[in-house]
Design goal:
Layout lengths: L1 H32 L11 E15 L11 E15 L3 E16 L3 E18 L4 E11 L4 E3 L2 E7 L5 E14 L2 E14 L3 H6 L10 E17 L4 E15 L11 E11 L4 E11 L5 E2 L12 E2 L3 E13 L1
Antiparallel strand pairs: 1-2, 1-16, 2-3, 3-4, 4-5, 5-8, 6-7, 8-9, 9-10, 10-11, 11-12, 12-13, 13-16, 14-15
Amino acid sequence: MRLKRLCVVALFAALGGIASAQITDLETSIRDDKTVTTEKQDSTKWKWGGMFGLNASQATFTNWAAGGSNSVGGNAMTNLWLNFVGNTSSWENTLDLGYGLLYQESDGLRKTDDKIDFSSKYGYKASKHWYYAAMLNFKTQFSEGYNYPNDSVIVSNFMAPGYLIGAIGMDYKPHKVFTAFISPVTAKMTFVLDNTLSEQGAFGVEKGEKFRLQCGGYLRLVYNQSFLKNSITIISKLDLFSNYYSNSGESAKPQNIDVNWENIISFKINKYISANINTLLIYDDDIKMPTGTKDSEGKDITKGPKLQFKEVVGIGLSYKF
């Protein structure tokens, strides 16, 4: 029970720290605007920007001896960020959105990408490269996902799953392109609000339940670097979570570390056209999938965790601001 309380405290501390940061930093910004500008005050400022990309693909086959299926597809993605940089504190916010569809004449319409990822982190300077920090991270998707080629069996939906992480710890910033957030006390909440999926006990919740609380340790590494006069940009995010406590019936397994590793590589061709490579690797001990063992009728009889991998490659319109 003590560990559960610590996890709840971690969540509310993250919420409270970020909320108080908004008020304090806004007050500081307003106060600085009313005073004479100095070199020191110039280091306190807001920075914001973003990127929007739209990729499309199309293929047509007519009397093609080698075979093929007519198809058309599109993928849209957006990355927005808003940061406050102060003399003794920082507040970083990012929002990543992605959605893609592919229509094939033989298979119909399928989803190829679906992502909502919001992160907010507040830090107060402890030393040259270290900050006391509180962080919130929220992940889910926009729409239903199906067990293709069977498009009548839903395997995911909006807020099924949905993940909310609240953490307090230390943030290491040795360079502007790299940060390492370390939290020994983290609350991870899993939401499965789709009735069908919750009845199946999907994504680690108890059958019939729609919420699961886990407490543990958390590590988040972020690398963001541009090369060749911003012609190439690499963004890499690695999240590691070790579970100490769970409110579900299963015992905690801290040795089974959850992994979420995302990489985005963008190649700028000209002002409005770029090529993008997006990869996502996931391992979650709570997500059970068929292992390939079947009964005499061909039905899956065993499920277990598996390494998940997704890659999206595209070329199309891109705009940075």
